[in-house]
Amino acid sequence: MNQPSESFAASVQPGGSVESKLNSGVTDSGLRKLLNEALFLSKFSGAVSATLDPGDVCAVAARVLYEHVPYRRITFSLLGNFGGKTVVFSPAEPADTHARVLLNVSGGGDAKGEKREKVRQGKPHFEGGANCLCYPFHLGDGSGQIEIFPEPRFIGRFSAQLSAGVTETFARAMKNALDFSKVKEIAMRDSLTGMLNRRAFDEVLADHRERGNMLPLSLLLIDIDDFKKVNDTFGHPAGDQVLVSFAGILQQACRGSDLAARYGGEEFVVILPATASARAHEIAQRLRNRFACTTFVFGERQLRLTASIGVSCAPDALGNMPDDLIRRADQALYQAKKTGKNRVLVYSANTVATAAQETGDQVGAPV
Fold first, then answer.
1. pLDDT in tens, 172-212
2. May I ask the CATH architecture of the domain 6-187?
3. What is the pTM of this model?
4. N or C: more exposed end of the chain, with fewer CB within 10 A?
5. Catalytic residue from among 37, 147, 168, 266
């Protein structure tokens, strides 16, 4: 077990060390309580610091704290620059709804916020028909608070020392998790378009494979036709403008459950959960038409571009997905460009084989 850090000692024993407590006449029961709190904070610190996912930090904190001091409900709120989310845990709820985001909390000074301001020292107050303890904390550019609704017979276990130690430790772990999430978010985004990049796309597609609960799953692989001519004729800034504009069109065309990413260069990819091939074809056609109707202006010249789209679908079995989905969509995209560009082609053994015969290309045997 990890030993309590010096900061813990300062929080748990603000008046000094255990020895000084003995010298000041602390009773055996009081000393045992201090030691138990120090040991618990060591355990609590190790648990919440073991993850860098903000949601997991809340979940672990809720579980470990409940094992030490039972409560009816606990609320973790992140305010200011951290999204204004409140996560609530209640042991009385079913396991599948144990943790959930219930509401958004405004950072303004509403009546509820003013009431919470009055209990900054964690003193019990009455809210919603139950005793509630409130502990605010700071997170650099933002702030937050923990609200605990303890079982009445256990409310005395939330000493000032324990509450201060829990709050400080939780805030430190949460800040580390939020900082890590920011870095990860930057690493998962394409710097030019702001879309998810290929690395993020690969992770999401692999996650769909693990869960397997969004079938049928379709995939669009999109390539801007003759994009190299834009760079060669108008320069790379013009090419960047086209990519940013197409990214915006793509994101606007996607449904809430879809995921779009820049796959690389002038290629983009879209995951369409719970979407059969016929519906995926409709979505791809709508996207193609919207892009073809977009006019780009470079100096005194106007230009319209087109895109080709390959579609693949996993109807009822994931197989070797994601590799199969990507390979099939790539084959369909290749044939779409070979047979005239500015078109959508859905992968199937017959469709791809026919397109290959028309162009004289050879396509590998379908998987």
1. 999 999 888 888 888 889 999 999 999 889 888 887 777 76
2. 2-Layer Sandwich (3.30)
3. 0.59
4. N
5. 266
